[in-house]
Design brief:
Layout: H1 3-8, H2 24-33, E1 83-89, H3 96-110, E2 114-120, H4 127-135, E3 141-145, H5 152-160, E4 167-170, H6 181-187, E5 194-200, H7 206-223, E6 235-238, H8 255-261, E7 266-272, H9 285-302, H10 312-315
Parallel strand pairs: 1-2, 1-4, 2-3, 5-7
Antiparallel strand pairs: 4-6, 5-6
Amino acid sequence: MDERRTAAAPPKEVYPARPSADLEPLNCALKLAKPACPASSSLKPDWRPGAGAPNAPRRRCLRVLPSMSAFPLPPDEGSPMELSIVIPFYNEADNIPPLFAELRKAVEMLGTTVEIIAVDDCSKDTTLEALKSIAATWPVLQVVPLGVNGGQAIALWRGFERVRGKWVATLDGDGQNPPLELVKLWAHRESADMVVGARQGRQDSLGRRVMSRIANNVRRLLLQDGVSDSGCALRLFRREVLGSMPPFKTLYSFIPACAVSGGWRVREIPVAHRARTAGVANYTFRKMAIFPFLDTLAFCWVLRRMLRLAPPRDRDKP
């Protein structure tokens, strides 16, 4: 590892691996005081203990991800793992074989130590079985099945909790992000702390492209993150950047903005995009426009209050 990257590593105290022993009595007391959630299959995800009976009018909770743990310590200097690739899946069984065939080629071209973390967000089809079948013959693949469908953000977060590499990459499981584009991002890794893709010649429906363009323009105007396509799932960033990401239900739309707010250097490069060949898109107008817009307003304040975790030496470089 070169001197610049060694000097840029943040103190390990920033990423506490476990609660302090002094806090154990308080943690135990809080666990005992927390009401148990009644076992009922009719409960909606946003029902909260103490909010009344399950059939009573529900109160909306904050749009944060539930039961999130702190990220583990950064990798040791002698860690052999260089890259962790996190891919969320939901009902993508037919897209898995061709996606992983391309991913194998990309891993060979990268020429470094890689782990792949595939998170199944409680799919209703045979996605989990397809992933396990590939993992049985490819040791670099780790399958993480979720017991409840929580959405893309929580699937990403569960994957982030398990990464061991010095660098983290993401892409979608629908096959629209060509895995070979990861090689292009990897080649630019030393020029920034985060390298994100900007999709060229998007192969989506007209309605989805219009909603995406409006959302990107509004977000860029309000957050001033300098990124033209925050919805592109092709990303590569240093593992330490995870410390600047809050557990938010639309986190996938604000990953570059979180990095910029944390003082990390972000670079955007053009990447290829292609049409979906199987499965059904899980995005709706509410998911693509309404929720991201409301969360953008919240992030305008939150990101201005974020700690700048990037080392000053990195921030001062042009």
